[in-house]
Amino acid sequence: MSSLVRDRLGGFAFGADYNPEQWPESVWDDDMALMKSAGVTMVSVGIFGWAAVEATPGSYDFGWVDRVMDRLAANGIGACLATMTASPPPWLAHRHPETLPRRADGTVLSPGSRQHFCPSGPVYREHAARLVEAIATRYADHPALAMWHINNEYGCHVPECFCDVSAAAFRSWLADRYGDVDALNDAWSTTFWSQRYADLAEVLPPRAAPTFLNPAQVLDYKRFSSDALLECFLMEKEILRRATPTVPVTTNFVGAWHRIDVTSWAPHLDVVSYDSYPDPNEPDTVIQAAFMYDRMRALHGKPWLLLEQAPSAVNWRAHNAPKAVGEMRLWSYQAVARGADAIMYFQWRQSRGGAERFHSAMVPHGGPETRAYAETAALGAELGRLGPVLGSTVDAPVALVSDWSSGWALQGNALPSAGLVQEETDFAHYRSLWKAGVAVDVVSPSVDLSRYRLVVVPNLYAVDLDVAERLVEYVRAGGHLVMSFFSGIVDSAERVHLGGYPGPFRELLGLGVDEFWPLPPGGTVALDSGGAGTHWSEWITPAGADVLDRFADGELAGMPAITRHAFGDGVATYLGTRPDEATMADVVGRALTAAGVTPVLEGVPDGVEVVERGGNGRWLFLLNHNKTAVTVPLPADAVDVLTGDVLGAEVELAGRGVVVARLS
Amino acid sequence: MSSLVRDRLGGFAFGADYNPEQWPESVWDDDMALMKSAGVTMVSVGIFGWAAVEATPGSYDFGWVDRVMDRLAANGIGACLATMTASPPPWLAHRHPETLPRRADGTVLSPGSRQHFCPSGPVYREHAARLVEAIATRYADHPALAMWHINNEYGCHVPECFCDVSAAAFRSWLADRYGDVDALNDAWSTTFWSQRYADLAEVLPPRAAPTFLNPAQVLDYKRFSSDALLECFLMEKEILRRATPTVPVTTNFVGAWHRIDVTSWAPHLDVVSYDSYPDPNEPDTVIQAAFMYDRMRALHGKPWLLLEQAPSAVNWRAHNAPKAVGEMRLWSYQAVARGADAIMYFQWRQSRGGAERFHSAMVPHGGPETRAYAETAALGAELGRLGPVLGSTVDAPVALVSDWSSGWALQGNALPSAGLVQEETDFAHYRSLWKAGVAVDVVSPSVDLSRYRLVVVPNLYAVDLDVAERLVEYVRAGGHLVMSFFSGIVDSAERVHLGGYPGPFRELLGLGVDEFWPLPPGGTVALDSGGAGTHWSEWITPAGADVLDRFADGELAGMPAITRHAFGDGVATYLGTRPDEATMADVVGRALTAAGVTPVLEGVPDGVEVVERGGNGRWLFLLNHNKTAVTVPLPADAVDVLTGDVLGAEVELAGRGVVVARLS
Amino acid sequence: MSSLVRDRLGGFAFGADYNPEQWPESVWDDDMALMKSAGVTMVSVGIFGWAAVEATPGSYDFGWVDRVMDRLAANGIGACLATMTASPPPWLAHRHPETLPRRADGTVLSPGSRQHFCPSGPVYREHAARLVEAIATRYADHPALAMWHINNEYGCHVPECFCDVSAAAFRSWLADRYGDVDALNDAWSTTFWSQRYADLAEVLPPRAAPTFLNPAQVLDYKRFSSDALLECFLMEKEILRRATPTVPVTTNFVGAWHRIDVTSWAPHLDVVSYDSYPDPNEPDTVIQAAFMYDRMRALHGKPWLLLEQAPSAVNWRAHNAPKAVGEMRLWSYQAVARGADAIMYFQWRQSRGGAERFHSAMVPHGGPETRAYAETAALGAELGRLGPVLGSTVDAPVALVSDWSSGWALQGNALPSAGLVQEETDFAHYRSLWKAGVAVDVVSPSVDLSRYRLVVVPNLYAVDLDVAERLVEYVRAGGHLVMSFFSGIVDSAERVHLGGYPGPFRELLGLGVDEFWPLPPGGTVALDSGGAGTHWSEWITPAGADVLDRFADGELAGMPAITRHAFGDGVATYLGTRPDEATMADVVGRALTAAGVTPVLEGVPDGVEVVERGGNGRWLFLLNHNKTAVTVPLPADAVDVLTGDVLGAEVELAGRGVVVARLS
Fold this sequence. Notes:
homotrimer; alpha/beta; TIM Barrel; Rossmann fold; Immunoglobulin-like; 3 domains; 9-stranded parallel sheet; 7-stranded mixed sheet; 18 helices; 27 strands; 30% helix; globular; metal-binding (chains A, B, C)
């Protein structure tokens, strides 16, 4: 398996966002020296450089960029060069106020922070295109150029704009999607509440309204908004491709916040990049991070780039905890274990002013005599030894299906319960898989599932019949499935699958659901097994399924809660509630056993994460999330990649310690 | 007593909102068959039909309505035909954006949900009038036409509009109310904070402002807004009346949310209708429902129509619990017991799409093979036997006075306590009456009180002197009164009655209040009796009143908390705090005894509600809200109306069971 | 020491806001009689009189003001005459809608309450100037005129306006402050996030934006907004000064809410005035009040005026508790003890209507036969005996440094912790000083500190190097300092002091801080001493400082938490966390001892506040905040000022009792 990063940089991509324009040039030589001593191999340059290169419209001054790129080249450091379009200079809104985005209630979002542009506006696009053209032309052949970094964190702050320009673009998008107004009326069920459109020209964004908006309109607006940003990306990519047909192009995705649909974006990126900011104050933060890494890797089924993480604390939470001693290293290896071929930070030198002056950096306000610099530089040295790992990936026997549209749809109103949040539901299932120590891909329902032994579907609320049929066929052909409640309910236009819940999955699951019985916040329902459920219960009528567990109190006492159905050559387990962690572990554990899925490594203590990368060798990552040392059994003939030592039958991991073992 | 419903339908009105335009016509014949088998006698048609009959402005297509009406007639089902004005088609706002309502902060409320019209706007009114005219003309003589249903749930989502059109209408309303600007200045106390108007043209709605708005302006705006919607109603009613002088006209009121003043609207309806959505998750939900039913019945002192309820769950709460087995039947009988001559659902067939697709219906997504269909159809069959009950009403010896303007005024700011919510206060008093098993009318202070033995006034904050005098005269003439704190404080323009609190009630109550001493949230004050008060305490100086209970701790320890005053030929009890439930029950119980009020039925177990309808016979409703069976004593010679059995000295009620007994 | 109040009124200023225009003139003679019998010597007149004197633009009618002023003069009552500009009449916004202020999201704030003017607008200013000119001219020589009261509670509701007029004024203010756009770009660190301005014309207020705004922009907008209001004040003052060169001018400050910067305003007032509204429901309300009084007194180092307080309850909190029997008197003496030469109320006669009708007054709705009138009149009589105290002040050996800009800056976003609120931090430190019974001045960091024995710096986040150097020099010269965490971090433009935290204080404190470790809400960290810290911890590296206490758990276990450093001839104590109250008392107590600061009076029971005023005699105020009596030791030869009795070696203070003792 080849490695894009190794091919371009000759080793691990290690570095940070580098914003030298914030500092006098006298600092730059220090920067180079410190970068070298920290093992930096690549930096992201110019992400917020627009105003510094185009101080007034159309008048470009690339002098400082030239000098930075030249210095990088001279020091053998690659540049992930930004297209600088993420934050327009103040003059753009001053001259073209219509470029500013609007909230659903009409509020104009002014300059003064970042991302203050309506993605559908032609003026922004023209100015951005002209800038990208200039950059692409100028640096196409620069020796420092390693990669293109388009824009930055698309949709992070303005995932949707509700202005009139966006409204017009939305109508055009709808015309493309539906053809004519009759098809739109049908898809959106507009007969309800007298919403039938006589003409597409009447359609508006889902702006502030008297009460619940049309759910199909809301969902399509999220799709449109993601696509509007994607158009911006593709416009830039096309310019870059023309100038540099072989330089890879990426943009950095942000979190699982359902801003843009990364599953629809990923095919357009040469390499997937991700900004990861786990909260040290969150107890399960490393499991949540693992979930996202398994999603990012699965987008291409290839290594990905951790394009941003914090050396220590961030600045944007209400209470920003630093990473404790050892956590930054441990968590970096976690990303590498799960497929990252780059470890990059935001940012190189901590800003003196501006909104992120309290975000940690490789070189803090206190300079290199600080813990942050020491720990990052030490990691840089270590990563230099991981070159052989580059390009390898993770072979997962389990897929967790998480559908972007369903997650968006569940953000809507007027559902049986407001307590269904896709991220939380996904995580409640993923945690059991993580604790079971098995490798997981987080995938869309439309991928080829046949390679997985077990497929877990936490909540596939919105699903078209053809996609649902793939899941049915997967089980019929011998697959093992675990599916939770409120799946198969509506199609992609939020129209209910008629004939009884859960629509296209009734036969597969061997049951019907007469009615949903959501639990209020904090409400629980006892289970026969001794466990308890939260969030949800429902009136299940088995039609072939065996009952694994029953509700033990409340209005549904004695009725089925968890079932299993042999279907075709496979088996489908169904959960009609969100079981407590132990019950979930039990249900998932039995499904893993039935599917023949085993942990990456047996006999591992609690709190130790084990991941294997392979494809070009076998690399076992042992990550001790405990604060105290533990002993972990090892396969024969393992070699410690960082020390070169041959390892025995077991190895001691220090508190927050890491071992990367090469297996034979 | 005649019955409007029996006269028109020949029996109980039982049915649902029927929105066939959401379905292919192929479904309609199934609908008819299912309706017949469910005992449906009336359906509400076309409530959101505007866009489906007037797809483009002025071009009406009533074909589908004709076919629906004809089918209904052919099947002997009455139509409560809607005027279709509740939700304008998108083309209205597209062509006339000024028809959209605005919030107090200026936010425009866009189409995409429903009720997106400013009620004061001439454009909306013209289009609505033209539509109503067309409907009235076309269906005046249709054999299915049973009743007119004007608009829908007036003010549910947009009780007030703050646009410039509304501002102008407000000024006109003020000119009618006050005559000139001097009278307005006087009523609104505008000398305060330099708010004196030089001209009515300067007056604005109570829009977003730097701090607390003029309370009289705020209160008058609520009155104006209710009247603006009433004008819309009356405009439609006038058109319908001209076309069909004898067809009754109604509109469905929604909840106790103080949106429109139902007490001022009621005289304009031929029959009062109400949409009832008790929350199964609320412990006291049946008592809250009873309160509203007693209010609806008392509006006309006649039977009313339960025009909407859910067969099971709703969709618009954060967590929507279904009605448990038996609850829908039990709660329906509760409405009938308290005067309903119709039991209707929202809606007939559960929508496939749109914002209410998860609202339960008589025919759910799963079709007729569902609990919801089975339970509603069974109820339909039963109600067919209740024909003789129709037209009877409830003879209540107790009145609970709840004033709409006072409730609105308490929603204002800068009061002694933000914790005074009219609904909660009313309910705290009503609950004791409900648990005492006595019949209650919930009335305005302006009704004739002389027919009641006991009058309970939970919180009559805003009261003009002439209205206050009626209460004084009621007691002087021998009436019994229970009044709670913060009554008699201001007049209808929010001007304090000077000379000491509680203004016009000091002599009646035999006391003065030197100062209010509201308790913070969660704060309590002990009482000598061993009970405790919440929400409020105050410095009471008796002037003739006897002290029933005293504050036992805090700054007011030793001072009077609850008093009783013999006044004229009657007695007035006063509560200077909100006592706990047991103390409230004791105070109310003593007042009931003194007034000679007895329960409808003695010896009834807890959780069993007993109501008698009479006038044309005597009908005793026994409603067991417990989940387990209980035994209830019965008067002699009672006959079970549903079974025809002669009942003995006692009857067993199943858990959530109902008996309707005809008394001799 | 002379006394402005005694010189003008011949005795204590005692009275209230007097708004006779709200009442028929028939009430006015009653008012005069009641004022005389209550000992009133001064009233604030006409604060909301604009609409009543200028009913239509330009047409003044001062008749009623004349009659009020004449009556006051005839009764020997002074007038603190308002300029009436606090609340423009409705006609101003009606004719000039651009005078209305806007929120950051663009919402227009309409008339209907008060303070609905953009302070930067020329139209408001012109109308205000014309009115003030008319008032100044008319009453310059009126015998009742004692003082000028400009506007009212500047910035209370609209501290910042974001309209386009304000935007232009902001740009002009920036041009004055920075000269050119390059200096602005440098100060605001605009290279970050591509915010560099090409021209000052591009700068906007910090309006609603996609994410965190530029912190320097936000902070400067607060400064500008305070200055915009100050310009209004100065414009009025200049008119008044011309008409009456010797009549003192004041305006009433409101609370510690960081609306306007009172430290920059104070030099422009002839006498500092303050509106004090402690919440009787707050446990530490008297300590919070003391803090503000010590700030107000320290602004001029002279007596100040309590221009508003409530006789009992206010109306604007969610739950408005009255002052219990004795509290109003006790709290009034607290203000006098801490330097007030006036005790005034809002208001004289409780309004019948308007938003403050439930705010207590000297003459309540119930008239003079009420507790409020009785207690205030009794106080009026007592204060008549305090004439000799007037003009004296408090000699404080301790300074608490509270910087307005730092407090503003901490209201920003994207800080290490959102839990740092200047008021709370200041209070946590002040409380220990209050409980230690020592006298404190609350001062800006720029005052001369050399006169203080101990300087306490709770959180001086934003400090320029020259100001920081004053603190360093203070200690070097022998001063004692207590400083808490997150001080010395940024300069006045929110730019971090580079080279390691806490920037300019590292040498002084003998330590460095590697990283901040804020605690989440409710989070605590144990200390070696047995105490605990909240809010914050940090990684401290001593460089000369001794460690007084260490963190005992968490990631920083074993590292320093509290240190002490001998520096020059002084000592600097540093707290790296917010210790619990006992630990804070211990740290502060040790610093007081080291600095040689002793309590005003030794041997005082808990809950008894002792303050000495001096300069023209010695006056000892003993304030018993307990509900029960206590005995307090006294110096020899003390005389009870209120009774004339010679006091012995100790005196008994009744519950909530007060003794004012003249010392020899």
